[in-house]
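Exercise 7. Predict the structure of ABC transporter ATP-binding protein from Streptacidiphilus cavernicola.
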Amino acid sequence: MPEPQDDVLVQAAGLTKVHRAGGLRAVDGIDFELRRGVAFGFLGPNGAGKSTTMRMIGCVSTPSAGRLRILGLDPATQGELIRARIGVVPQEDSLDVDLTVRENLLVYGRYFGLSRRESRERAGELLGFAQLEDRADAKVETLSGGMKRRLTIARSLINNPEILLLDEPTTGLDPQARHVLWDRLFRLKQQGVTLILTTHYMDEAEQLCDRLVVMDKGRIAAEGSPRELIDGHSSREVVELRFAVGEQEVMAEKLRDAAERVEVLPDRVLLYTADGESALAAVQQLGIAPLTTLTRRSTLEDVFLRLTGRTLVD
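Solution. The predicted structure, encoded as tokens:
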């Protein structure tokens, strides 16, 4: 691995994690770099190795092999120094429900060694950032799911971290709460905080991430910006054609020359093409009349499903 540059915060080369129980290779020799000020996302189905990679970056799991450097430090021997400079937002909220919103922040500040005065100042700033000033003295158990998530993120920022790790930050939130949280995270990035996140939401990855890694079975299947991934692994547009039950395979065979790639699903046929209107014209010329048609731009979800498959993973 080359020597780290000043703006490279995380470097991994041949990073591997083998679980002792059963010898499962959860992460299988992956390489990546994460630069300062970039929002970096890990995408992948369940069991792909995303959370395991995040735990290694967060210094709570030791790599089995390979090399990992975080902020120029070795997590195997300097984990405490690294943890003092990062923030972690776990998938499940771990707030103290017996304390108030403000007290959750104050206690966490003391955990990081902040003085009482520093803790109070930071708590005040973060209550404003999280839009929770009016709930500062409320017990956590009275908060909505979106408020709890914002408080969890605020708490993770108490030590002014250089890197913020977010594991599925908006899982379980309604659309309004998700958009509020996206706004808070975008503001953090503008302030120079480097974000590393896992998500199952393709729109979230496209909204928040400058660069993405798609993982499958412990390995990196692709890496790039959202636009680069779409351009490299899908077409510009997708035409969705719905037919009566049982007709998909026959129709897909007739349509094989109407697009760059044809995919058969249980309820529809997808045509991947640079020009949706031209593809629909070709469908009409063949005398094929779908029940419904939809032309849309290609998305990260198309890339994700092409790289990792459509089989359900428990």
